[in-house]
Write a structure and sequence with these properties.
Number of helices: 3
Oligomer: single chain
Low-confidence stretches: 54-74
Mean pLDDT: 78
Structural class: alpha/beta
Keywords: Membrane, Transmembrane, Transmembrane helix
Number of strands: 9
CATH architecture of the largest domain: Sandwich
Largest sheet: 6 strands, mixed
Strand order of the largest sheet: 1-6-5-8-9-3
CATH superfamily of the largest domain: Cupredoxins -  blue copper proteins
Shape: rod-shaped
CATH class of the largest domain: Mainly Beta
CATH topology of the largest domain: Immunoglobulin-like
Helix content: 25-40%
Distance between the termini: 128 Å
Length: 187
């Protein structure tokens, strides 16, 4: 004898708690892919900025000479240097690099890739010529007082230093580094 089956509403087969159709599945996968790409991009940007900060810290952590300790390099421009810089025409040197090194021995400021000068202080008479020597693989903009000079990579410039009134101390900047060296100009 067969018993009749009772169909009661509370004994229904339960549905899965969460089920997506095909279209919804594609949207979820696409959204997750976009989030993954964004996470990778942000991670790479953070890693790159950490490498730049580390490189800047390593460049500024080089040992200083006693003369360099008196001249602090900063990355903020001085408050009084708000005037528009004056571009000074510079004659292209007819000297070879070796000849210029010999001729301007003692009157040469050499800049490395981190814009660190070889000397931090120099005293000379107004109108004296000095050699700006770029030993970096990138061009550098060197500012002496309010005059800007662009020195191409692994190249040099011979510049005449003048100031008025005399005596005067001219600060030297290299790219975004201010007060990396000083020139005392005497009459």
């Amino acid at each position: 004898m067969k018993l009749p089956q009772l169909k009661l509403p509370f004994f229904k087969k339960p549905k899965p708690p969460f089920q997506l159709n095909r279209k919804q599945t594609y949207w979820v996968i696409g959204g997750l892919a976009i989030l993954a790409i964004l996470a990778i991009a942000i991670g790479l940007k953070c890693q790159t900025s950490k490498q730049i900060k580390t490189a800047n810290l390593n460049a500024s952590a080089q040992p200083e000479t006693p003369a360099a300790a008196t001249t602090a390099a900063t990355t903020t421009p001085p408050a009084a240097a708000k005037k528009a810089p004056v571009k000074t025409p510079v004659k292209t040197p007819a000297l070879t690099y070796e000849e210029a090194i010999k001729k301007y021995a003692g009157w040469r400021i050499q800049f490395d890739a981190a814009c660190q000068p070889s000397i931090t202080s120099m005293t000379l008479k107004t109108g004296s010529a000095i050699m700006l020597d770029n030993r970096s693989s990138a061009k550098q903009i060197i500012t002496i007082g309010d005059k800007k000079y662009t020195v191409n990579s692994f190249n040099f410039l011979i510049v005449s230093v003048t100031a008025s009134p005399l005596p005067q101390t001219l600060n030297i900047a290299c790219n975004a580094r201010y007060n990396v060296a000083r020139i005392n100009v005497q009459p």
